[in-house]
Every structure is written in C-alpha cells, then in structure tokens.
C-alpha cells in the first residue's frame, strides 16, 4: 500500500475571513468588480468568492494558486459597438 501524504487545511483562516467579508459586501450591494472597484456591482456568488480569494492572495494568506485552463468571458475581444 502506498502511503498517502497527510494534508492540512487547503485554505488558511485569513482566506476564509476575506471570502466571508466579500460575501457580506455582495449582500449589502457594495462589492464591485474591476481594478480599484470601478466596475459594476457584483451579483454572482461565485464572483464574490473569487474576489475574496484574490484579495486574500494579495494579502499573503494561504490560498492554493489559480488553476489554468478554463477561461470564461467574452468570445470576441473588444467592446460592443453601437450604431
């Protein structure tokens, strides 16, 4: 039998606090996306979690690094043109 590596917490306590804070701000309606929070209001639960984890990462909390590969968003680059 192969010995399995004993793993601890994947996310640190500080990371969960950041996510918790982001979720509260989303509920309150003050969580915003984009650089410097200049984007639109965040309504999605998933996006709120992502923002919380991103903030935690930048503060140096224990958060696993981002997975590569799956990319969402717009298919065509650029902005919508109005006629």
Short description, anyone?
The chain is built from two helices and no strands. The chain is mostly helical and about 80 residues long. The protein has a domain at about 15-60.
Largest sheet: none
Q: How many E-type strands?
A: 0
**Order of helical and strand elements:** HH
**How far do the termini sit from each other?**
67 Å
Search tags:
83 residues, mainly alpha
Describe the protein.
With 83 residues, this protein is an all-alpha fold. It has a domain of 46 residues. It is 36% helix and 0% strand. The protein is built from 2 helices and no strands. It is extended and about 65 Å long. It starts with 12 loop residues before the first helix and ends in a 25-residue tail after the last helix. 16% of the residues are buried.
Topology:
Elements (H helix, E strand, L loop, with lengths): L12 H16 L16 H14 L25
Helix pairs in contact: 1-2
């Amino acid at each position: 039998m192969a010995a399995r590596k004993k793993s601890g917490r994947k996310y640190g306590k500080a990371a969960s606090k950041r996510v918790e804070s982001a979720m509260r701000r989303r509920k309150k309606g003050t969580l915003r996306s984009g650089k410097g929070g200049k984007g639109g209001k965040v309504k999605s639960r998933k996006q709120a979690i992502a923002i919380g984890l991103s903030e935690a990462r930048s503060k140096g909390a224990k958060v696993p690094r981002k997975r590569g590969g799956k990319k969402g968003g717009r298919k065509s680059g650029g902005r919508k043109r109005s006629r």
